[in-house]
Amino acid sequence: MSFSSSNRLALGAALLAGLPAFAATSEVTPAGFLATFREEVDASPAEAWRTVTRIDRWWSADHTYSGDAANLSLDPVAGGCWCERWNGNSVEHMRVVHALAGKSLRLEGALGPLQAMAVTGVLTLALAPNGEKTTLTVTHRVRGSPDAALDKIATAVDGVLGEQVKRLAALLRPAAAAPS
Q1: Strand order in the sheet with 104-109
Q2: pLDDT at residue 110, rounded to an integer
Q3: Higher pLDDT, 173 or 17
Q4: Helices (H), 37-135
């Protein structure tokens, strides 16, 4: 079965609408929103950085174009690509605009169906030492024209990104402490 890009966007939004929200989503308007996620993990900022930059280990295959997270790569340097490549196909999900090893990674672009909406997002993953642990703070700011009706999909986008943050945090926790 073949879908047009507008049909894929509608299908994606419908599927995402049923997902729970995980973040403190704020500044929700038709022209944008801000989602903020916080997790405390049992890893040093350096260990967390190594895991954050291995996006193929924590991003769900369900939210890739190819259906296989092993096709994802992230070059954690300014200008680096968070890309997906498979069978002669490729997608640039976001581009790195700020990389401070062990501290923060900032990417710019539009994830998934947001690409077709001609909006942009800024995704920041910040790592702060917290005693023997690290506080992981992920923010995703999405902006576009008011006709993008981003207020209608903010909860769905929050749900997808929240799932990925939970997967990342689970990798950074000892097996006994990881949620089941």
Answers
A1: 24-29, 32-41, 133-143, 120-130, 104-109, 89-100, 81-86, 72-74
A2: 96
A3: 173
A4: 45-52, 55-58
Token representation of residue 93: 């999900």
User: Does residue 121 belong to any structural domain of this protein?
Assistant: yes
**For position 89, which CATH number holds?**
3.30.530.20
Residue carrying structure tokens 């169906």 = 113
Residue 48 domain-assigned (yes or no) = yes
pLDDT of 28 > 70? The answer is yes
The C-alpha angle 166, 97, 143, rounded to 5 degrees, equals 70
* Token pair recorded at residue 133: 């642990």
Tokens coding 162:
């929240």
- Residues 64-69 have a mean pLDDT of 97
Q: The whole model's pTM is what?
A: 0.84
pLDDT of res. 61: 97
- Residue 127 has phi, psi (to 5 degrees) of -120, 120
